[in-house]
Every structure is written in structure tokens, then in C-alpha cells.
């Protein structure tokens, strides 16, 4: 068995002070993918690395933004940063780690805002990322590895993945072309593992705004995904969103998405 967790920590130093360290100490995960760490390597809390190997990709252009990492119990065989595109490779958006039989990636896909340069950036990333994933999947298969891309994809794929979908059809994260992009990805053979294990239900949501009572009312979005090659997805035993017991006990606006994969 391999247990894999993925979470956008919304600032690793703040999250560590609020409960991330306790969660890391108690988790049974073998692999933890982190997103939006917003810290350089030397700014990471040393306590969070106890018992883990860390592969890390901070944002090199702007301090305090983005940042992805992968914590593993076993030593990685190889680490790769970026998707081979200069615009994004130093931006702390994507990191891959090779383990025996598995390539696992941590992704922080750009979060757009309609009508702004941020949405244009997100659209450029999507256009580049789909062919990259196709290429990496072929390479992983040639090396007899499965592949798993975990992270904050910043897209809710379908109506069941966002509580107030009618009010968000013109907002980034639920735009028609973004959902079509995800649908094409799944049609090409990639599998949305949480949805495969939780068909026909709303959610389970993984992000809730800090505004109002979104968390208390479970007015959330499912934007944190495990996207796997079919053979690996078929080995998924269970999937759960580790939702905090209360608003006050949250250490991020996201919750860890944890899946157990059979060996």
C-alpha cells in the first residue's frame, strides 16, 4: 500500500503555526504533495522535515509566491522541476519525483481572474501542460512507471464539484473552456481518482473561502485532484478529504486529499 496526500497549505509558515506540523506528525501518508508554500527553501520550518525527504521548487522570480514540494518517506530516485517552458519553470508551479514504479508530481496550476493577465497566464499554462502530460505519461510507461499528478488544479471539472455552480459559470475555475480542458484530459486516459471512487455525489469539496460561512455551510469547490494513469487509478482503495472539525481548527483554506493505493 502507498498512501498519498496532497494539500495547498496557503503559506507553509502560517500553516505550520496553525496545525500543519501536528498533521504531518500524525499522518500515515507515505507521500505528501504540497502547494502554495510561499517560501524559499531556507524559510521552511525545520520541524516539518523530520522523517521526510523533501524535493522542493520555490518561486524564483517573486519571493512569497507559489512554491511546490513533495515529501517522501523513501529517498527519491530522481527529481525534475518544471514543464520545460521558460515562462513557468522557475515559478514554483510543478515538480516531479521518481520513486520505485511511480512518478509523482505536485502541481499548483495558475489561478486566473477573468479579463485580467492572470487568466491569460492560466490559459497559456493549460495550452502547454496538456501536451507535456501526454509526453511524460509515455516516458513513464517506457520506464515501467505509473504516474500521478496531485495538487491544486484550480479547476472544478463538473457541476458536482462546486456547490454554487450556477453562480460561478463566468468565474475562473469553472469557465467552460477550463472544464472542457479537464474533460479532454480525462478522455485521453487520465483518471480523476476521487471522482472514480465517489461517483454520482456532490463533492467531496476540498476548498472553502475564508469569507462568510462557506466552510460551515460546506459551500466549497473540488479543485484539489489526484489525476492518475488508469492502472494506478484502478489500485485506489479509498479516498478522503481530511476536512477540519471546525472553522477555527483549519490551517489552510484547503484540506488534504488523501488516497490509499494498493501495491
UniProtKB/TrEMBL annotation:
<dbReference type="GO" id="GO:0008311">
    <property type="term" value="F:double-stranded DNA 3'-5' DNA exonuclease activity"/>
</dbReference>
<comment type="similarity">
    <text>Belongs to the DNA repair enzymes AP/ExoA family.</text>
</comment>
<dbReference type="InterPro" id="IPR036691">
    <property type="entry name" value="Endo/exonu/phosph_ase_sf"/>
</dbReference>
<dbReference type="InterPro" id="IPR005135">
    <property type="entry name" value="Endo/exonuclease/phosphatase"/>
</dbReference>
<keyword id="KW-0460">Magnesium</keyword>
<dbReference type="InterPro" id="IPR037493">
    <property type="entry name" value="ExoIII-like"/>
</dbReference>
<dbReference type="Pfam" id="PF03372">
    <property type="entry name" value="Exo_endo_phos"/>
</dbReference>
<protein>
    <submittedName>
        <fullName>Exodeoxyribonuclease III</fullName>
        <ecNumber>3.1.11.2</ecNumber>
    </submittedName>
</protein>
<keyword id="KW-0378">Hydrolase</keyword>
<dbReference type="InterPro" id="IPR004808">
    <property type="entry name" value="AP_endonuc_1"/>
</dbReference>
<keyword id="KW-0479">Metal-binding</keyword>
<feature type="domain" description="Endonuclease/exonuclease/phosphatase">
    <location>
        <begin position="6"/>
        <end position="254"/>
    </location>
</feature>
Amino acid at each position: 500500500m502507498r498512501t498519498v496526500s496532497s494539500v495547498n497549505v496557503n503559506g507553509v509558515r502560517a500553516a505550520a503555526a496553525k496545525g500543519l506540523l501536528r498533521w504531518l506528525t500524525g499522518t500515515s501518508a507515505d507521500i505528501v504533495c504540497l502547494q502554495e508554500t510561499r517560501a524559499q527553501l531556507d524559510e521552511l520550518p525545520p520541524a516539518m522535515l523530520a522523517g521526510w525527504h523533501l524535493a522542493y521548487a520555490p518561486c524564483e522570480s517573486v519571493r512569497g509566491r507559489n512554491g511546490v514540494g513533495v515529501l517522501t518517506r523513501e529517498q527519491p530516485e530522481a527529481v525534475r522541476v518544471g514543464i520545460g517552458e521558460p515562462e513557468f519553470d522557475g515559478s514554483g508551479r510543478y515538480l516531479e519525483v521518481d520513486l520505485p514504479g511511480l512518478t509523482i508530481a505536485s502541481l499548483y496550476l495558475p489561478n486566473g481572474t477573468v479579463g485580467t493577465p492572470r487568466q491569460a497566464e492560466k490559459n497559456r499554462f493549460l495550452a502547454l501542460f496538456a501536451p507535456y502530460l501526454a509526453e511524460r505519461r509515455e516516458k513513464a510507461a517506457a520506464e515501467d512507471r505509473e504516474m500521478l499528478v496531485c495538487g491544486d488544479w484550480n479547476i472544478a471539472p463538473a457541476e458536482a464539484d462546486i456547490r454554487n455552480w450556477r453562480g460561478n459559470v463566468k468565474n475562473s475555475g469553472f469557465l467552460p473552456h477550463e472544464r472542457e480542458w479537464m474533460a479532454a484530459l480525462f478522455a485521453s486516459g487520465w483518471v480523476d481518482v476521487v471522482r472514480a471512487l465517489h461517483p454520482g455525489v456532490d463533492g467531496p469539496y476540498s476548498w472553502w473561502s475564508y469569507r462568510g460561512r462557506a466552510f460551515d455551510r460546506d459551500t466549497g469547490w473540488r479543485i484539489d485532484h489526484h489525476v492518475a494513469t488508469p492502472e494506478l487509478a484502478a489500485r485506489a482503495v479509498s479516498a478522503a478529504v481530511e476536512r477540519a472539525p471546525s472553522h477555527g481548527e483549519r490551517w489552510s483554506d484547503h484540506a488534504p486529499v488523501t488516497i490509499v493505493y494498493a501495491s
